[in-house]
Amino acid sequence: MANLRRALLNISRILDSTAIPARITNVNPPIQSASLYRPLVGSFSRFCSSNESVDIDLSNEESKRRLFNRLLYRSKQRGFLELDLILGKWVEEHIHSMDQNGIKSLVDVLDLENPDLWKWLTSQEQPPEIITTNPVFSALHEKVMNSLDSYAAPETRAIPGQQWVRGWDDFKKGKDSPISGNQ
């Protein structure tokens, strides 16, 4: 690690010495080499999530394939396991049949924050109207609710509009705890 620091310091010294030469005027001080580091920050930021809109280009097969792969990756690698599974499977099944408006709607859903999206999809909270009018969100919400109705016992779920309860203390079994399940 110390060798890496020394190497970086040497590189910065080299860049400082080869940067823009100082002028022999007293009007302006020499330009600092800090501007040389900005592209590094900018190149790193493209790997982080940002509010930049996705370039939707469906003109040829290569750009379409790249866009689909990027959106599929974003839907499967959100860092929230439940959403990774639900969104990833849904996008994998439907992305090839989407037009440009559908892809824009999908991008809008993928730009939502994980906790909010999860609560809205599972009806723990009421989503804003702009979200409920999104066709991709509506289809996802319908799929999630159908799955919950099919596979989860009603007594294990919270009342719609209320947050779910974690099941780590179910062994206490108070008078208001559910009959079965971990909710």
UniProtKB/TrEMBL annotation:
GO cellular component: mitochondrion
SUPFAM superfamilies given in the database record: YgfY-like
Gene3D superfamilies: Flavinator of succinate dehydrogenase
Matches recorded under InterPro entries: SDH, SDH_sf
BP-aspect Gene Ontology terms: mitochondrial electron transport, succinate to ubiquinone; mitochondrial respiratory chain complex II assembly; tricarboxylic acid cycle
Pfam families in UniProt: Sdh5 (PF03937)
Keywords from the named record: Chaperone
Protein name per UniProt: Succinate dehydrogenase assembly factor 2, mitochondrial
Organism of derivation: Camellia sinensis
